[in-house]
Amino acid sequence: MSNLIFPKSWNMAEGEATPESVYMNRRDFIKGTSITTLAATASFYGCGIGPTPNRNAPIEWSAIEEKIYPVKRNTKYSLDRSITEEKIAAIFNNFFEFSEIKSDPSFHAQALSTRPWKLEITGLVNKPRTFDLDDFYKLMDIEERLYRLRCVEAWAMAVPWTGFPLKALLDIVEPKSNATHVAMTTFYKPFTAQGQLAFWRPWPYTEALTIEEAINELTFMALGMYGHPLRKQHGAPIRLVVPWKYGFKSIKSIVKIELIDYQPLTFWNTVLPLEYSFEANVDPTINHPRWLQATEKMLGTGEVHKTRLYNGYEKQVAHLYG
């Protein structure tokens, strides 16, 4: 395998006296935790030398996955540009649980154990249920779809995702009539995903959609991409894909879905509400304070395209916002 090259155009960028032995043990623990936290946050913010990107980390396969992949492509969902090379997508990831440096999650995320994995669906549903990973392959019609992925940072990819519509999953648990939003939560393992040691941020990562957005035909639960199960840096073993919204809405490594009757707090909308709206629809006329949105650059090829309203999916979603 050739050495990795990163073209510059990709970089965006507590009584009584405590016994002495107990006190000493506690002091050692705090000292160790402090060192770990400082080291983790230093890495999290890009201080020091980062790890070597690992685009070829082994992919975890279950027996059922070995039988299912590759999956038939649904040709209804096509692209107006070439698919982004997997070797590029594998080492360019926003996954802040592991790092703010885009090349780092391909290395750090390998520490996350994704087998077994449970996803709980609760809240305003008639049939709350906890699924394991194999349940999805047994219960769902799995297909491949080609979608554009647009980041608010003005870079873009074109990706072959494998999975199923979120609506199919919600149909199983039967949302109640008063459910208005679908809230999603990722894992919380701060000594595995050391970015979560940044206590000033509202971990675990959360996102949400309106119920109408959640049942839209485009809203997709991805189990794989590029003809195999998801790599860990892409949000294994299950993530959301909402192609008409900026990429931060497509929450990774989901462990809980809750149907509720109010608009919930979400991660980036809480951290920087003036920069990240709850809606987060791709719109070339509304600039982010740090990134103009009129154009987008494709990773790998460097092609520049005019940004399209709703990322080009206006026909399927414009009625949601009329």
How would you explain this protein's 3D organization?
There is one protein chain. This protein has helices spanning 20-44, 63-68, 86-89, 105-108, 133-139, 166-173, 211-214, 267-271, 314-317, and strands at 118-123, 129-132, 143-150, 155-165, 181-186, 206-210, 220-225, 228-229, 239-241, 254-260, 295-298, 304-306. With 322 residues, it is α+β, with helices and mostly antiparallel strands. Mean pLDDT is 87; it is low at 1-49. Helices cover 21% and strands 20% of the residues. The protein has a single domain, classed as Alpha-Beta Complex (Sulfite Oxidase, Chain A, domain 2), CATH 3.90.420.10. Strands 3, 4, 7, 8, 9, 11 and 12 form a 7-stranded mixed β-sheet that branches. Strands 2-1-10-5-6 form a 5-stranded mixed β-sheet. A hairpin with a 4-residue loop joins strand 3 (143-150) and strand 4 (155-165).
Summed up, the helix count is 9
Helix proportion: 10-25%
Level-1 CATH class name: Alpha Beta
| Total domains | 1
Beta content comes to: 15-25%
CATH topology label = Sulfite Oxidase, Chain A, domain 2
Taking the sheet with the most strands, its summary is:
7 strands, mixed
Order of helices and strands: HHHHEEHEEHEEHEEEEHEEH
Radius of gyration in whole Å, from Cα?
Answer: 21 Å
CATH architecture: Alpha-Beta Complex
CATH superfamily: Oxidoreductase, molybdopterin-binding domain
Show unreliable segments: 1-49
Mean pLDDT rating: 87
Structural class: alpha+beta
